[in-house]
Specification:
Glucose Oxidase, domain 1, TIM Barrel, alpha/beta, eight-stranded parallel beta sheet, single chain, eight-stranded mixed beta sheet, about 45% helix, binds magnesium ion
């Protein structure tokens, strides 16, 4: 039976594919296809893992102390029985043979199928056996990771788009941590749906950077959608259609083709300079998460990198941070790839919905800090770890010897943060000079993401050479709305007069002081805001490479003088008579 779910549209386009349900705790399981020649090997890996787990369980049973409760031995018997049950290992084998999933993926796919069956059981005792099944699968996954053939995987990953004969796949999960999204770069999924998340949560931002359709905050999606269901993800409207009828499917296939044609048309603008109808030149820069993204930035015609979110280098490392040399190599790779174009490297912005390890954002939110968005994140965290901070500063400075580097400091709110940052930078330079390591003097900018920074911008401008507006956080902190929380997503409003006033004020003050000002939040890559930002005087936009062409097209069709006049009206209207949400929505779509 066909049905629809509604969420927040976070990454444009339409994806049609079979659902792959992944439990949040297993999102980091490798997902790749194995080719025909490797199917037998993959089944072999599964067999070895199963035998290893059977051995482990038998040993545990054998060595059980005499005084151990009898239930424990019975429990181990249940685990052994589950392990050998055909519905687990036999069916997992089928996923490998028929779908060419790697063993870990096949196992987690089958776990999702069985978990549903357990959930639906009437008998309490049987329903509770789901936990046992999960423990057995955990053991199998561990055995696969440490098995004799562990080094075998996951190198020969084959992307879904390249795997002939396979149905396209879409990922359905309760939540995906931003770091886990990175696993999916160039991967097998052509779309995402999650139960939780906001429009500018970092999970949504990474989904946009992957340029594949995504809907977040679809509440019950991962509970209602079943493994292998056909799903349409409408990333323009935030709609998820499960088990669509042939007519609906055809309608969306048509929309996919139209979107592809539009994309090809836009790609022709790659070498066209972004100049408004009245001759105002606009700089379009790229936001990147990893050095490898620099290629996409160049491909899209970016004039540089306006935001390199360096924290992605720090994630998923089991608490071990990258050292100075490792960071230096990563920054140098990005700088060299950009061929002399500027690369703006932001110091690490860990915290809030970007945990260091692979704990999910919601786990982090609920278990570790009462209010992480207001807690120890961004420059606050860096200043609380002076050794780590200076190490990063040295690595960034060293990369400056290989191209044009700019340093960007996230979330400044106190002048003391500016002073301490400059002191740390001076020390890092001194250390490099003493060690005879080359670097050049780089420009230092502040991210304007907290209303306090706007309200005292002239004081901050005495310290910084440029500013970059982080509108994602600026909206969050101005309106007191957690950007990652779908429960308040309807109140996260970039058109709020207070938000527009702060953005306009920052642009105007920075320009008046002769300082370069850019916007690197998601508003910069959304064509609905292009004319408003142009009208406020903005001439530098930084966004995901995939959005550059659409923004350029909007700029080519805009008249900056007219935009300024409209913005004056908008700001006056905002200050006097606040617009109703419905009016704002119509402005947005216009
Ligand atoms: C922002 O806050 O707008 C921004 C660009 O930084 P991030 O999204 O990484 O917090
Ligand atoms: Mg930010």
């Amino acid at each position: 039976m066909s049905f629809q779910l509604f969420g927040l549209p976070v990454s444009r386009g339409v994806a049609i594919g079979r659902a792959v349900l992944v439990a949040s705790s297993r999102v980091d399981v490798a997902h790749y296809f194995v080719d025909d020649a490797r199917v037998e090997d993959e089944i072999g890996r599964l067999r070895v893992a199963r035998d290893a787990v059977a051995g482990e369980l038998s040993l545990l049973k054998r060595d059980m102390p005499a005084e151990a409760p009898a239930e424990l031995a019975a429990l181990l018997d249940v685990h052994l029985m589950l392990l050998h049950d055909d519905s687990l290992t036999g069916a997992t084998k089928q996923w490998i043979v028929e779908r060419h999933y790697n063993a870990e993926w096949a196992l987690s796919a089958q776990l999702e199928v069985l978990a549903r069956q357990f959930d639906e059981m009437e008998d309490d005792y049987l329903r509770e056996r789901k936990a046992d099944l999960e423990q057995v699968v955990e053991r199998l996954l561990r055995a696969l990771a440490h098995g004799p053939d562990a080094s075998f995987s996951p190198a020969p990953a084959v992307g879904a788009r390249d795997f002939a004969g396979e149905d396209p796949l879409v990922l359905v999960a309760n939540d995906i941590a931003p770091a886990d999204m990175l696993h999916f770069k160039g991967g097998v999924f052509t779309g995402f749906v999650t139960d939780v998340g906001g429009r500018t949560s970092h999970t949504a931002i990474v989904a946009r950077s992957l340029d594949i359709p995504a809907v977040v905050g679809a509440r019950e999606a991962s509970r209602i959608i079943r493994q292998d269901d056909w799903v349409i993800i409408d990333g323009d409207n935030g709609v998820v259609i499960v088990d669509p009828s042939p007519i609906v499917l055809e309608e969306y296939r048509f929309r996919q083709r139209q979107a592809e044609l539009e994309r090809q048309k836009l790609a022709r603008l790659r070498h066209t300079p972004a100049v408004t109808l009245d001759g105002e030149r606009v700089e379009l820069l790229a936001n990147i998460e990893l050095p490898a993204d620099a290629a996409a930035a160049l491909e899209a015609g970016a004039l540089g990198v306006g935001l390199f979110r360096s924290e992605f280098l720090f994630m998923n490392r089991g608490g071990e941070l990258p050292g100075e040399d490792e960071q230096f190599e990563a920054y140098r790779a990005a700088v060299e790839a950009m061929n002399g174009l500027p690369v703006t490297i932001r110091t690490v912005d860990i915290g809030a919905d970007k945990p260091l390890d692979r704990m999910s954002a919601s786990e982090l939110r609920h278990e570790h800090a009462l209010n992480p968005a207001l807690g120890l994140r961004a420059i606050r965290w860096s200043l609380s770890e002076p050794g780590m901070f200076r190490q990063q500063l040295r690595a960034i400075l060293r990369a400056s010897a290989y191209g044009k580097v700019r340093l960007l400091i996230p979330m400044v709110a106190h002048l003391s943060e500016a002073k301490l940052t400059m002191e740390a930078l001076a020390r890092a330079k001194q250390q490099l000079a003493d060690a005879g390591k080359p670097f050049v003097d780089i420009e230092v900018g502040a991210m304007i993401e907290v209303p306090a920074a706007v309200l005292m911008l002239p004081a901050f401008l005495r310290y910084f050479d440029f500013v970059s507006l982080g509108t994602n956080d600026l909206i969050q902190y101005t309106l007191a709305i957690d950007r990652a929380d779908e429960a308040v997503a309807h109140l996260y409003d970039p058109w709020h007069p207070a938000v527009l006033g702060l953005i306009a004020s920052t642009i105007q003050q920075a320009r008046a002081a002769g300082k370069h000002v850019s916007v690197c939040g998601e508003m910069a890559g959304d064509p609905a805001f292009t004319e408003t930002l142009l009208g406020m005087g903005l001439r530098s936009f930084s966004m995901h490479p995939a959005q550059i062409a659409a923004i350029k097209q909007r700029i080519l069709r805009s008249d900056a003088r007219r935009c300024s006049a409209s913005v004056r009206d908008l700001l006056l209207g905002g200050a006097g008579v606040p617009m109703e949400p419905a009016q704002r929505a119509s402005t947005r779509n216009g």
